[in-house]
UniProtKB/TrEMBL annotation:
This is FAD-dependent oxidoreductase. Its cofactor is FAD. Keywords: Oxidoreductase. Belongs to the flavin monoamine oxidase family. FAD binds at residues 15, 34-35, 205, 391. GO terms for molecular function: oxidoreductase activity. Residues 14-97, 169-414 form the Amine oxidase domain. Coiled coil: none annotated. The keyword Translocase does not apply. Pfam families: Amino_oxidase. Substrate binds at residue 308. It comes from Rhizobium quercicola.
Amino acid sequence: MERDADVIVVGAGFTGLAAAQALVDRGLSVIVLEARAEVGGRVRSFETSDGTRRDAGGQFVCDDMPEVMALVRAARLETVESRWKGAATTVSATPSRRASYRDNPLYARMEAADPTDPALAGLSIADWLDGQDVPAAAKRDFLSMVHGLWCLPADVIPFWYLVDSDRRNTAEMSELQYFLRDSAASLADAMAARLRSHVILSAPVSRIRRREEHVVVETVERQLTARHVLVAVPPVRARDIVQEPPLPVPLARALGCWRSGAVIKILLRYGERFWSPSVSSGVSWEDVGGLYAFDVSLDASHAAFVVFVGGPLALDWRARGRAFIEQTVRARMGELLGADAPEPVEFILHDWTDDRWSGGGYSDVIVDFAAHDAEALLRQGAGRVAFASSELSPSFPTYIEGAIVAGRLAAGQIADALANEDVATAASVERAR
Ligand SMILES: Cc1cc2nc3c(=O)[nH]c(=O)nc-3n(C[C@H](O)[C@H](O)[C@H](O)COP(=O)(O)OP(=O)(O)OC[C@H]3O[C@@H](n4cnc5c(N)ncnc54)[C@H](O)[C@@H]3O)c2cc1C
């Protein structure tokens, strides 16, 4: 039967782009169908009034993330070393308290925990914190880190999931070591440029029909056939795609056990970098969890802070409206930078909560306490349909690096399966002679 491609990849985030390139490198024909009018997914950019391209989503990378750094070098993209020195100044009643979440005693305890320990099985992060005999400030900082990075309330996240996911982040150095001068989206663009005509934009996939020897992938405008399909979208969005016949029950459950979080990312651009070096490394606030600011100046005259609002705080603030958020963030940054500090020349807000195509937060999070095998089931897929996303990566899940690793892993499995099918077909043709 005539097919449109060997493999259709749904989604042109870093998972889909990395997978598509790996499949092309194995000599397979590939079509990438992307819902948005641009590639990159949770990595997006926007232009400021001074003509610089800035990150609305994923941004920071570091030398301990080998795959993304290799792509950055191959694409000859310029990196900017961030001013993060490993500890944020905490705005608190105790001036200049410096806190790195990794120095928190609770972080060492979390690292020492075993995600398969039956004693932890039913505990949420909040339950686990309740049982820890440490000063209240340490609990508060840990909770702020959870809200800031995991973007959901601590009482809905299984503690074992936090431990398991954190273990796969093997960075020894700061994850905020670099960002790309022309935004992380410029890397996605470079990857898409290599794929050229393989990528079709503004093509949301609504249904996948699995047949014995092929799959049919439907968008509003097209119906395409392929031997395999890779659904390279986050789990919460993957379950919006109708599967026909329905997925096997365990796999459907594995897709159903994730929840998207809430994060708002704000850029405050200033005319020049006037602030003291002590605030350049980053800022957190003691009275409000899940709020962080980092210096993302390109140089002295392209000065900016990026502010993250994560988890329950993001939900609370978005309910109060954009004007409230802008007023609050401007006021807090003003207090931080001093009475004489000029106002930012630009204030640009991106709310990722409930994002139509990527969910919300940095990544979807497992919220079913019994779903230990969910990731393995999704990686396995069902027949000719496979799933991949940063969430499912064996290394650096929830990061750009993880997306690249997950995409390549899934691509390798599909290419191997196709090679095995070809061998089996050739053998049966031979037998029939
Ligand atoms: C605000 C923010 C800040 C972040 N900061 C960092 C950071 O500093 N460093 C870092 O490493 N990571 C960061 N991350 C996380 C990182 O961006 C993600 O882990 C990574 O980009 C996920 O890639 P992905 O391809 O798995 O998923 P996505 O990027 O979500 O890609 C999925 C793609 O599928 C498309 N899609 C969805 N549904 C359909 C459909 N039905 N049909 C067709 N296409 C569809 C989407 O439009 C999207 O393009 C951040 C994320 C956010 C939101």
